[in-house]
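re: ur question from the group chat, yeah i did fold both. here u go
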Amino acid sequence: MEIRKKVQAGTLQSSDLMVFVEPAETLSIEIESTVKKQFEHLIHARIEVVLERLQVTRGHIRLSDRGALDYAIEARVEAALRRAALEG
Protein backbone atom coordinates (compact mmCIF):
# COMPACT_ATOMS: atom_id res chain seq x y z
CA MET A 1 0.00 0.00 0.00
CA GLU A 2 1.34 3.42 -0.92
CA ILE A 3 0.74 6.49 1.23
CA ARG A 4 -0.35 9.18 -1.21
CA LYS A 5 -1.53 12.04 0.99
CA LYS A 6 -1.41 13.49 4.50
CA VAL A 7 -4.34 12.35 6.69
CA GLN A 8 -5.41 11.78 10.27
CA ALA A 9 -7.74 9.44 12.14
CA GLY A 10 -8.98 9.27 15.70
CA THR A 11 -9.56 11.67 18.59
CA LEU A 12 -7.58 13.04 21.51
CA GLN A 13 -10.09 11.87 24.10
CA SER A 14 -9.07 9.71 27.03
CA SER A 15 -8.50 6.05 26.06
CA ASP A 16 -8.18 6.95 22.36
CA LEU A 17 -5.48 8.21 20.04
CA MET A 18 -4.94 10.40 17.02
CA VAL A 19 -2.91 9.02 14.12
CA PHE A 20 -1.23 11.29 11.58
CA VAL A 21 0.11 9.76 8.35
CA GLU A 22 1.98 11.43 5.52
CA PRO A 23 4.09 10.37 2.54
CA ALA A 24 7.85 9.99 3.06
CA GLU A 25 10.80 8.35 1.35
CA THR A 26 11.48 6.07 4.33
CA LEU A 27 9.33 4.49 7.03
CA SER A 28 9.34 6.29 10.37
CA ILE A 29 7.17 5.98 13.46
CA GLU A 30 6.84 8.65 16.14
CA ILE A 31 4.93 7.95 19.35
CA GLU A 32 3.68 10.52 21.85
CA SER A 33 1.82 8.90 24.73
CA THR A 34 0.70 9.48 28.28
CA VAL A 35 1.91 5.93 28.97
CA LYS A 36 5.04 6.03 26.80
CA LYS A 37 7.49 4.90 29.49
CA GLN A 38 5.52 1.75 30.27
CA PHE A 39 4.02 0.81 26.90
CA GLU A 40 5.94 2.38 23.99
CA HIS A 41 7.31 -0.99 22.88
CA LEU A 42 3.82 -2.52 22.85
CA ILE A 43 2.32 0.43 20.96
CA HIS A 44 5.14 0.19 18.41
CA ALA A 45 4.50 -3.55 18.01
CA ARG A 46 0.78 -2.93 17.28
CA ILE A 47 1.71 -0.36 14.63
CA GLU A 48 4.19 -2.79 13.05
CA VAL A 49 1.48 -5.48 12.81
CA VAL A 50 -0.75 -3.16 10.78
CA LEU A 51 2.10 -1.89 8.59
CA GLU A 52 3.12 -5.46 7.76
CA ARG A 53 -0.46 -6.60 7.08
CA LEU A 54 -1.07 -3.67 4.70
CA GLN A 55 2.43 -3.91 3.20
CA VAL A 56 3.36 -0.32 3.97
CA THR A 57 7.10 0.29 3.53
CA ARG A 58 7.29 4.10 3.29
CA GLY A 59 5.67 6.95 5.16
CA HIS A 60 5.75 8.93 8.39
CA ILE A 61 3.35 7.69 11.05
CA ARG A 62 2.85 9.81 14.19
CA LEU A 63 0.63 8.81 17.11
CA SER A 64 -0.65 10.94 19.92
CA ASP A 65 -1.94 8.36 22.39
CA ARG A 66 -4.13 8.89 25.45
CA GLY A 67 -4.07 5.33 26.79
CA ALA A 68 -5.79 3.50 23.93
CA LEU A 69 -6.10 -0.28 24.01
CA ASP A 70 -4.49 -2.54 21.39
CA TYR A 71 -7.59 -2.93 19.23
CA ALA A 72 -8.08 0.85 19.10
CA ILE A 73 -4.45 1.40 18.09
CA GLU A 74 -4.72 -1.11 15.26
CA ALA A 75 -8.08 0.25 14.07
CA ARG A 76 -6.97 3.90 14.07
CA VAL A 77 -3.68 3.14 12.31
CA GLU A 78 -5.43 1.05 9.66
CA ALA A 79 -8.09 3.73 9.10
CA ALA A 80 -5.43 6.41 8.64
CA LEU A 81 -3.37 4.27 6.26
CA ARG A 82 -6.38 3.37 4.14
CA ARG A 83 -7.40 7.05 3.92
CA ALA A 84 -3.84 8.02 3.00
CA ALA A 85 -3.77 5.49 0.16
CA LEU A 86 -6.99 6.74 -1.49
CA GLU A 87 -6.78 8.92 -4.57
CA GLY A 88 -8.46 12.32 -4.59
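okk and heres the other one u asked abt
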Amino acid sequence: MAKLIAVLNVIAWSGFWAFGYLALSSGSEAGSQTVVAILLAALGGALGLWAYFWLIRHSEATGYAKPRNRVTITEEETA
Protein backbone atom coordinates (compact mmCIF):
# COMPACT_ATOMS: atom_id res chain seq x y z
CA MET A 1 0.00 0.00 0.00
CA ALA A 2 2.83 2.38 0.83
CA LYS A 3 4.37 1.96 -2.63
CA LEU A 4 1.03 2.76 -4.26
CA ILE A 5 0.70 5.92 -2.17
CA ALA A 6 4.29 6.86 -3.05
CA VAL A 7 3.53 6.52 -6.77
CA LEU A 8 0.36 8.58 -6.28
CA ASN A 9 2.48 11.21 -4.52
CA VAL A 10 4.87 11.52 -7.47
CA ILE A 11 2.05 11.65 -10.03
CA ALA A 12 0.09 14.20 -8.00
CA TRP A 13 3.04 16.56 -7.57
CA SER A 14 3.89 16.21 -11.27
CA GLY A 15 0.33 17.19 -12.13
CA PHE A 16 0.50 20.10 -9.71
CA TRP A 17 3.63 21.53 -11.30
CA ALA A 18 2.59 20.83 -14.90
CA PHE A 19 -0.93 22.25 -14.64
CA GLY A 20 0.26 25.06 -12.39
CA TYR A 21 2.72 26.12 -15.09
CA LEU A 22 0.00 25.90 -17.73
CA ALA A 23 -2.31 28.04 -15.60
CA LEU A 24 0.35 30.67 -15.00
CA SER A 25 1.65 30.80 -18.55
CA SER A 26 -1.69 30.81 -20.36
CA GLY A 27 -2.70 34.12 -21.84
CA SER A 28 -5.74 36.18 -20.98
CA GLU A 29 -7.62 34.92 -24.05
CA ALA A 30 -7.75 31.32 -22.71
CA GLY A 31 -10.21 31.87 -19.86
CA SER A 32 -11.86 28.48 -19.51
CA GLN A 33 -8.59 26.60 -20.12
CA THR A 34 -6.96 28.59 -17.33
CA VAL A 35 -9.74 27.71 -14.91
CA VAL A 36 -9.45 24.00 -15.74
CA ALA A 37 -5.67 24.14 -15.33
CA ILE A 38 -6.04 25.90 -11.94
CA LEU A 39 -8.53 23.27 -10.76
CA LEU A 40 -6.30 20.40 -11.87
CA ALA A 41 -3.26 22.01 -10.24
CA ALA A 42 -5.18 22.44 -6.98
CA LEU A 43 -6.32 18.82 -7.12
CA GLY A 44 -2.74 17.67 -7.73
CA GLY A 45 -1.47 19.79 -4.85
CA ALA A 46 -4.14 18.51 -2.46
CA LEU A 47 -3.52 14.86 -3.39
CA GLY A 48 0.23 15.41 -3.17
CA LEU A 49 -0.01 16.87 0.33
CA TRP A 50 -2.34 14.11 1.49
CA ALA A 51 -0.04 11.39 0.12
CA TYR A 52 3.07 13.05 1.58
CA PHE A 53 1.58 13.31 5.06
CA TRP A 54 0.30 9.73 4.84
CA LEU A 55 3.79 8.53 3.95
CA ILE A 56 5.28 10.47 6.88
CA ARG A 57 2.79 8.96 9.35
CA HIS A 58 3.32 5.48 7.90
CA SER A 59 7.11 5.66 8.07
CA GLU A 60 6.98 6.83 11.69
CA ALA A 61 4.48 4.11 12.64
CA THR A 62 6.53 1.32 11.06
CA GLY A 63 9.79 2.50 12.60
CA TYR A 64 11.44 3.41 9.30
CA ALA A 65 11.76 7.06 10.35
CA LYS A 66 12.42 8.46 13.79
CA PRO A 67 9.25 9.96 15.33
CA ARG A 68 9.09 13.71 15.72
CA ASN A 69 9.78 15.29 19.08
CA ARG A 70 6.36 16.04 20.49
CA VAL A 71 5.62 17.63 23.82
CA THR A 72 3.31 15.68 26.08
CA ILE A 73 1.28 17.66 28.60
CA THR A 74 1.15 16.12 32.04
CA GLU A 75 -1.59 16.60 34.61
CA GLU A 76 0.65 18.81 36.74
CA GLU A 77 1.02 21.35 33.93
CA THR A 78 -2.72 21.67 33.34
CA ALA A 79 -3.59 22.33 37.01
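fwiw on the second one: The CA atoms of residues 9 and 48 lie 5 Å apart. The mean pLDDT is 88. idk if thats what u expected
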